[in-house]
Amino acid sequence: MAESEHTASETVAQRVDADDTLSLLQDLVRIPSPYFEEEEIVEFVHDWLDEAGLDPEYHRVEEPDITGYEGRNVLARLEGSDPDAPTLLLNAHVDTVKIVDAWEEDPFSGRIEDGKLYGQGACDMKGGLAAVLVAFRILAEAVDAGDLDLAGDLLLTAVVDEEGPYGLGTDRLLRDGLLDDVDAAVVTEPGPILAQSDVSNPALILGARGRFLYDMEIRGRAAHGSQPHKGINAVVDAGRVAETLDGLDVDSHEKLGDGSVCPIKVEGGSQTLSVPERARLMVDRHVVPGESREVVREQAEAAVEALDLDSEVAVGFRESPDPGIKYGPYVTDPDHALVGSLEGATRRVTGVAPETAYFASVGDFNYLGDPDRGNLPTVILGPDGENIHSAGEFVYTDEVVEVTEILVEAAADLLGE
Ligand SMILES: [Zn+2]
């Protein structure tokens, strides 16, 4: 857009066009992109940025050992005038969960009805992806037109494989040093729907619990099934361990709330007339700061020890491409300049102050916020909806537009001269 099309009193955020934004979102939803199958949407995002003159680049993501995955992130950077000014990251994932069977309509329709846009991934998180793309373009256009001066850089990362097993896209950004100059991050995941407390948009999510997944191998001793006293029943002992873990006392955190333990899978048994000698229990463990992998292991081992079982029990953590890949908990300082910019922007765009909350589960934002990894002040701000990861998923269209406007306003404030 040329400068002359805009009035002097218009803010840059007012240049966000709702129809444009939602039309882009429909395009994104119409491209199926379950994790590990993102090539088409990655090219679409790249070409969309390229056609807008925003010089996108591909970034290779490979994980040969466990998944055999090969994919590409898309990056674009808007350079500010002052190398010492802060760099803000806008991060969104392009993938969705695997397509859910229960859809009663085309899961890629992008149909809009009653202010809801439907499709697999519409809320998690193509709504947020459309928001960062449009916000980035509007800011770039405003700078180009001489209507806005940015001192700091704005970095856009559209990443692959967030929904997959290891968050490989954002992991690779960190590993390859592409976020080394970043000072703060916004991830436009849907926030309130997965918050620890009951909030609604506009909301800033200022932290998240972390997560470990571990296995317990329970080894008993086989015997004839008619004489169970001669063996050690691994299945029965697995049940005891599961029950104990279910009631385990874990740490809590003033902001992130309680850690949690959830035995999520049990397998075991052998032949039809034998005391089972092996069982395996898989445990989901959401953690708060202070609950490291070692702490989690020690807690589980102590709980087993106290049971004084005849079976032998070993705790193991799931196979990972690298020990550094972990979803650590983090809390963002509410007094950080990014939070201030987002609060002010939210007030100006919506007329109300945002609520604040903390995320219940994990995602790429953990990699960014975890003091052991990205160590970045990281805020989740994204359009909400319903039925994420399931059939009938939708995102609220007005929130997609609102988040786009808040991003523009906040970036202009934080990075402005
Ligand atoms: Zn997501």
From TrEMBL:
Residues 207-308 form the Peptidase M20 dimerisation domain. Gene3D superfamilies: 3.30.70.360, Zn peptidases (3.40.630.10). It comes from the Archaea. It holds the Pfam family Peptidase_M20. Its cofactor is Zn(2+). Keywords: Hydrolase, Metal-binding, Zinc. The keyword Zinc applies. GO terms for molecular function: hydrolase activity; metal ion binding. SUPFAM superfamilies: Bacterial exopeptidase dimerisation domain, Zn-dependent exopeptidases. The keyword Phosphoprotein does not apply. PROSITE patterns: ARGE_DAPE_CPG2_1 (PS00758). Belongs to the peptidase M20A family. This is M20 family metallopeptidase. It comes from Halobium salinum.
